[in-house]
Write a structure and sequence with these properties.
mainly alpha; about 190 residues; elongated; single chain; 3 domains
Length: about 190
């Protein structure tokens, strides 16, 4: 039976690089025996201990990352779909989505591309991920931001430096603070 896929090559599957075949074949014990000239029983015992420690550390890291993601999704204000798409772009799962590019996702979700991009950046920062290949570098984003602040259309009507600084104020995202409009009515009444 032949199964046909819509994928043309490995790049369509999201494969970033070829697997290390030697690492797939060799065990930790083989490496220890080769590198440190250990006899086989000691290499196997030490290899099993190392593998168990690495698996425990990996499991702990995965569960910690998942706990952060779920916690943020539960407490996050705004559009949940935009947040989930931002997460997918941040972790490189965009090829599995209904809309595989940020532009298509933004159009499909009814938001701007910048909104999806900002969510992806927030997730990358929160999870400590490297910037995706389809994202601007921090330096390029800063340069673009400065140019936008300098040439902003609202600045033409600003008469003083203090008004200009209000227009250009940058607010950093804090996942622990609820988004505007998501506070309880009791809190709003208490403030009023």
């Amino acid at each position: 039976m032949i199964i046909e896929h819509d994928f043309n090559d490995a790049a369509d599957w999201g494969v970033q690089e070829a697997p290390d075949h030697a690492a797939l074949i060799d065990t930790t014990a083989d490496y220890l025996q080769e590198r440190w000239k250990l006899n086989r029983p000691i290499a196997e015992d030490l290899g099993a201990w190392i593998d168990a420690k690495e698996e425990l550390a990996s499991e702990s890291a995965r569960s910690g990352a998942l706990a952060r993601v779920v916690g943020v999704l539960i407490h996050m204000g705004g559009d949940l779909k935009v947040s989930v798409y931002g997460l997918a772009f941040a972790v490189g799962m965009n090829r599995l989505l209904k809309w595989p590019t940020m532009t298509l996702a933004a159009e499909g979700l009814g938001v701007t591309r910048a909104a999806v991009s900002k969510k992806a950046i927030q997730w990358e920062d929160l999870l400590g991920l490297k910037r995706s290949a389809h994202m601007k570098t921090d330096k390029a984003r800063e340069k673009y931001s400065e140019a936008q602040k300098k040439n902003h259309w609202r600045k033409a009507g600003a008469s003083s430096v203090s008004e200009k600084s209000k227009v250009c104020e940058v607010v950093h995202w804090d996942p622990n603070v609820p988004a505007p409009g998501t506070e309880d009515e009791d809190q709003e009444e208490a403030v009023a």
